[in-house]
Amino acid sequence: MLEILTRITEGKGHDGDIDTLLTLAKTVKECSLCGLGQTSPNPVLTTINYFRDEYDAHIKEKKCPAAVCDALMISPCQHTCPVGINIPKYVAHIAAGEYKEAIDTIRERNPFPAICGRICHHPCEGRCRRGELDDPVAIRALKRFAADWYFEHVTEDPEPFPQTQSQRIAVVGAGPTGLSCAYFLAQTGYPVTVFEALPIGGGMLSVAIPEFRLPREVIQKEIDYIAKRGVEIRYDTPINVNFTVEDLRKDGFDAVFVAAGAQRSQRIGIPGELEDVAGFYYGLRFLRDVKLGRQVRAGRRVAVIGGGNVALDAARTALRLGSEEANIFYRRSRDEMPVTGVEYDQAIAEGVQVNFLVSPTRIVSQDWEVTGLQCIRMRLGEPDQSGRRRPIPITGSEFFVEADNVIAAVGQAPDLSFLPADSALERTRWETLVVDSNTLSTNVSGVFAGGDFVTGPGMVIDAIAAGRRAAIAIDKYLKGDTSRVEIYDLKVGVVGELASQEIEEAWEVQPRLAVPALPVQKRKMSFAEVELSFPEERARQEAKRCLRCDLER
After folding, report:
1. pTM for the predicted model, two decimal places
2. What's the pLDDT tens digit per position in 444-479?
3. How far is residue 178's CA from residue 182's CA, in Å, rounded to a whole number?
4. End-to-end CA gap in the chain
5. Which residues pair with 302 in a beta bridge?
6. Which of 357, 360, 368, 428 ranks highest by number of CB atoms within 10 Å?
7. What architecture is domain 267-410?
8. Which class is domain 169-263+414-478?
9. What is the pLDDT of residue 289?
10. CATH number for the domain running over 2-69
11. In whole angstroms, what is the distance from residue 101 CA to residue 107 CA?
12. Does domain 73-154+491-553 have CATH number 1.10.1060?
């Protein structure tokens, strides 16, 4: 068992290893004649039972989710990044004042550096080894600095990628997943056409994330760059029951990637949830209407149901529209809240009030106008399938909250209504498409699907990773390559140009530099961007905090 486990941690595991471990462990447990022998397999059995996904990741993806298996990773930050950006390399370029080289390194894996430099949840920073000494390097802010420098200083248009392949590929949806797939396919030499139903690209980035977090002009610059590299984007061209995915194949496209996103708001499922009631909104519709400049009612007291980024964004937007109070009601605790510390702290500083362990039970209205919420307090029980502790109502703790607006922001879901009822594409009972987890291929040959459209709403960097995985899978499909799709870089001996030099181990405490931000009082008065960019000298100073743990000692 130790030999098999060691192989798995070195990225040399096989598909049958888990079954072999289970067989060996159960045999040892049942046949041993002493207590030591009978209990010795328990760690193996327990970890397989509770952490099966981690075993699968090590074996199938050659990836260690905890970023602790040294043989599998070049550096913890790069290994944790869903798209595998060579973070130490681009940070080193910034430290040396080589900003063009830094942005080129980022774009090897991510065509949206300016967007991710603003809204990525930066899991890389949580694994940064500098954080074991004082504070993690401000990786996200440095990415933004490099991207902003590029768009401010590089004026000539980039050259289109040369088209070296004859097969044509169609991508449905111009969100981050679809555009990432198109970008990497164009980089590989394929002619790619993206079909977008809306008159603008960017998907949820463009219509749902407020200007104070992600300005529209930033999104457009990124999309323009992708188009200039040779990706054709057809706006106002929906793929629906009139012109289907199957029609794209008949139209001469050799492969189709469906990346339609998750743009349908989920219902809460409580009494009073009626869209016709004045003052009631779903989070996505509320944010979309504000972003598009439509008239939105902003009452004095706003109640937001949910605990994710859409809930925080809706509450912060309401305050900017003139609401005096913005209360969020979340049925779990802060530990379970799926938002980063930066977004949460900014919302609290602006006056948003978050009420934890509270669940609305009824939306109250009178004469078709919202008057408030009926709520009940909760306590946390055992973890559910998501790994978060299940909220349990506390009997007798009901209370009423007055509100002029109620915004439901409990999640989004894919919308398969654009597919004909007789479509051959296989669906799950959760109304998503059935795809192979490695190749993202559907049951229809040549048709692939991925991103939020398949997995449900996630983080932007995960959407980009899905697009890159799809591009690699489609390239393999068109070349008749049946090997597994691998998107992560593995450690191969000596790494980096400085690997042969001795790295000085001495270090001194140097706290992380604070990212500049708009003063709180100015934030509430406009939709101006809250988080600002590092000045050049501070960016270089912060980049020099990197320990270069990607280099072999």
Report:
1. 0.91
2. 999 999 998 888 888 999 999 999 999 999 999 999
3. 6
4. 30
5. 326, 405
6. 360
7. 3-Layer(bba) Sandwich (3.50)
8. alpha beta
9. 92
10. 1.20.1440.230
11. 10
12. yes
